């Protein structure tokens, strides 16, 4: 009989005692359970004991967490948390260094438990640990253990960091600023100061004034990953607590001290793997640095600002300088104003007064900054972009200014400029630390990508939003790859053209529909042979219907028609001339097939066999073989391999026929002959080459076959899965159970019933 659900089978152990196997009733009070356990070991004063988990952090069992006890759990009987806290805090007062070290070790192991932490804190344990830290009598293991225990107790949030005294914080700052210090002490001291800075603005200012940035840079340059991580944590905490103006000054100073280069070379590209905590702090540093762009992003252009007007004029002159100088000489003020307005429109501004375009926030002045940076640091690319598009037709030109404004908004969204930092995110971009002015450099790459995509899409002004959606996808996909440098980003994003984006969209759509799930792929593979047979049947029927082809004379004129079809028994290709404007002949009107050999066809209206394309006669006497037996066909040739294309040279007109030309080589007596075709369309080319390949037993590999097969597979798969709508399909089939130990349950059909 199974035990009740609220009863679990567990083991309880105690040093120097035989473990107990008991059934713990979760409905019974914990004090009663302790009483039974102590009675089994003949222990008095059950209230002096408590149960702990035997593994992990040895957490105490309370009424709140007892539901975590499962079948098979191992517990241990130990001293009650209040008595243990009292004993350990008494050990901290010992004059023996060794006893204090052992007491702190035990305190550190129990401090993560909230029950024990409450007892220690209620007995002024934090003050006693703070005294050890402030005294600093032992700068080695004792100080390390005291800092660890203090941090573990504070992490429970029972005491605010703002309650710490200024002398205590200054003492911890001293440990950070010391040159010769234990390798374990400084990471713990940095961690403590980080928590103080993030939790208390007043004490954070004290830390900021006492810990110089140069000191943190020294810690970052030490090849100790833990020390680097904690130094970076304190640095980002100080930056987060600073005002925007102070933050800008601090970051400018850090970049001047080559912090960016050091992070890129010695932290991101170090031999040791980058930890999650360091990745988070690099994300915060990136977000704070990009956040410096927010004021420009939120500020619209001021039409009355002389500086901003000069920047706009510089942007115009960089694109049209020579033209403006030559045309503007000797012109009146109105004429020059009209000329400038026209050039601003050529530059891609929607209004003749560009200030109206830049009044939108975001991106505000940040878009102007990007355009100026591009014109000054990539002048040839800037001029090429503007002049190339200003020379296109109006409906196909890519407006530089409008594109730049929208692209700046897009980059701010992708990089989350101005958004608050996440407490857990780690998605920093390594290339951000690869060069100065990373945002503006990224814009320079992106605006050239936009122009490239515009041309690939053959876009017009009405397609502007569609182009921006594709560019967003190109940038987002490439940024998700986290390229390590701007050059690698440029390479990867340029390797993602518009066609590839469409293919990826199609693949993802199929994944969402479940079409690419392993069971569905297996079903598609099973359906392929049947559907390929259906396509083969359709191709042969099309050959039986026949097609009108044009003859090509020696002068390359397509002025005569001829008709070709496959006989209903699929044994002969029949053909003959057709008059211009006449309808395709029926099967009955074609020459009658000879009964005696099943191969020849007598064509009365052809005086002698004629080459179907060239119109040249191949013999002077009437022939019985103007039809081609399928059994005599040796090969199917296409494109440049066809003799009627190869013999005519490589002129431009001949090249236009390559994609539509195909030939059939067959045995004509002892010689090899060819039946040459020029298909009227690409679709007819695919249908005939597929049909002829099917007759020869070769695979049908045309693009039309691939499209037809995909369409049929999609339709057939959806029909097969109609009954499974909204039913999740597993990635793997369920496991096959092992065979039974015997088959005595099987019915023996050989035994006759009475």
UniProtKB/TrEMBL annotation:
<dbReference type="Pfam" id="PF11841">
    <property type="entry name" value="ELMO_ARM"/>
</dbReference>
<dbReference type="Pfam" id="PF04727">
    <property type="entry name" value="ELMO_CED12"/>
</dbReference>
<dbReference type="GO" id="GO:0006915">
    <property type="term" value="P:apoptotic process"/>
</dbReference>
<dbReference type="InterPro" id="IPR006816">
    <property type="entry name" value="ELMO_dom"/>
</dbReference>
<dbReference type="InterPro" id="IPR011989">
    <property type="entry name" value="ARM-like"/>
</dbReference>
<keyword id="KW-0053">Apoptosis</keyword>
<keyword id="KW-0581">Phagocytosis</keyword>
<protein>
    <submittedName>
        <fullName>Engulfment and cell motility protein 3 isoform X3</fullName>
    </submittedName>
</protein>
<dbReference type="GO" id="GO:0007015">
    <property type="term" value="P:actin filament organization"/>
</dbReference>
<dbReference type="InterPro" id="IPR016024">
    <property type="entry name" value="ARM-type_fold"/>
</dbReference>
<dbReference type="InterPro" id="IPR011993">
    <property type="entry name" value="PH-like_dom_sf"/>
</dbReference>
<keyword id="KW-0729">SH3-binding</keyword>
<feature type="domain" description="ELMO">
    <location>
        <begin position="307"/>
        <end position="479"/>
    </location>
</feature>
<dbReference type="GO" id="GO:0048870">
    <property type="term" value="P:cell motility"/>
</dbReference>
<dbReference type="Pfam" id="PF16457">
    <property type="entry name" value="PH_12"/>
</dbReference>
<dbReference type="InterPro" id="IPR024574">
    <property type="entry name" value="ELMO_ARM"/>
</dbReference>
<dbReference type="InterPro" id="IPR050868">
    <property type="entry name" value="ELMO_domain-containing"/>
</dbReference>
<dbReference type="InterPro" id="IPR001849">
    <property type="entry name" value="PH_domain"/>
</dbReference>
<comment type="function">
    <text>Involved in cytoskeletal rearrangements required for phagocytosis of apoptotic cells and cell motility. Acts in association with DOCK1 and CRK. Was initially proposed to be required in complex with DOCK1 to activate Rac Rho small GTPases. May enhance the guanine nucleotide exchange factor (GEF) activity of DOCK1.</text>
</comment>
<dbReference type="GO" id="GO:0006909">
    <property type="term" value="P:phagocytosis"/>
</dbReference>
<dbReference type="GO" id="GO:0017124">
    <property type="term" value="F:SH3 domain binding"/>
</dbReference>
